Amino acid sequence: MKEVIALRGVAGKGKSTTIRKVYNLLLGKYPNAAVEPAPGRRGIDVKVVITIGEVKIGIESRGDPGRALPESLDEFVEISCEIIVCTTRSYGDTVIAVENVKRNGYEVVWFEQEDAGDSESVQEVANQQMAERIVSEVEKSLAVEKGRAATR
Hints:
The chain is an alpha/beta fold.
């Protein structure tokens, strides 16, 4: 089962930060994973493909309208990522881009970014908790893919 795990929410609530945390948590849990960073990527954004066992996971932290999300989704589909993790806004072009990936046989699992208020420390805790939830979803998908590989 191919899956897109999408974190949606309004601007400025830590979605990209949360996806960077997902990336770091996966690297911590799977230190032998192969990581292929996107060429030319700079700054704090993350666009990578992590291979854990035989499962490719595409991760894109940029989900703002008019940015790279549709292109990244197409690239991840083209290279046969079984799992894609990304961010989107609450509605509009980025949500549509994720929904369009269903045409390629992907199931979409939505997570909603919580607005923890104006406190940075409270938002940081909320971001960490959300990252852990997303990693749990990734690990469920990894277990499914591992089971399928064993029956081939």
